[in-house]
């Protein structure tokens, strides 16, 4: 591989196959059509999924760009039923309070069409839970390492993760229990890590219904200059 020193640091040559404009249009259209089939699913089949699939999905998420390439993320992969139960109990405890007293009426009205409640059976039924932690700073040999753009970096990694889950033929729900400090305790994460998202993953249940929602049109989301 070709290498070059830039300011004393080794750089490697980067090459990608060149696509024709027609191929680019075709591939981008295909990718969009496929991603447009993704839906958030809250009902899972308990059928097991090979662990390699989840490892590949997490590796894909970990290819995301990050501030100064610090890769400020940890993905906890949970298949152990007793841990899933602990997470479900703690999440439902918080959600019960949220739905009954923390969430304002307009928020609950906005969630009505989606059919969400404080009950989270998917936290036990999905064969895997991925709990994404953001590392506010790194720790190496007892030294604090500065991380940059942590929320942006971990958000992008979660986008890759969700796309990879869909691409593998699986489904997920981006669950955001709030507050979610209980995840740090159950999973015994160090002080520099904070929970970011909880993503149950699995096959959708055989007969699954999802809300009849529609995505914004190109005109609604794009402003051309
Ligand atoms: N965290 C709660 C409520 C909730 C909030 C949003 I924003 C959603 O899109 C869906 C649910 C829960 O997970 O039920």
UniProtKB/TrEMBL annotation:
MF (Gene Ontology): oxidoreductase activity
Cited InterPro entries: Nitroreductase, Nitroreductase-like, Nitroreductase/BluB
Swiss-Prot/TrEMBL keywords: Flavoprotein, FMN, Oxidoreductase
Signal peptide segment: none
Entry annotated with the keyword Flavoprotein: yes
One of the Pfam families matching this protein, by short name: Nitroreductase
The keyword Oxidoreductase belongs to this UniProt entry's keyword annotation: yes
Domain Nitroreductase per the UniProt entry, residue ranges: 37-203
Protein name per UniProt: Nitroreductase
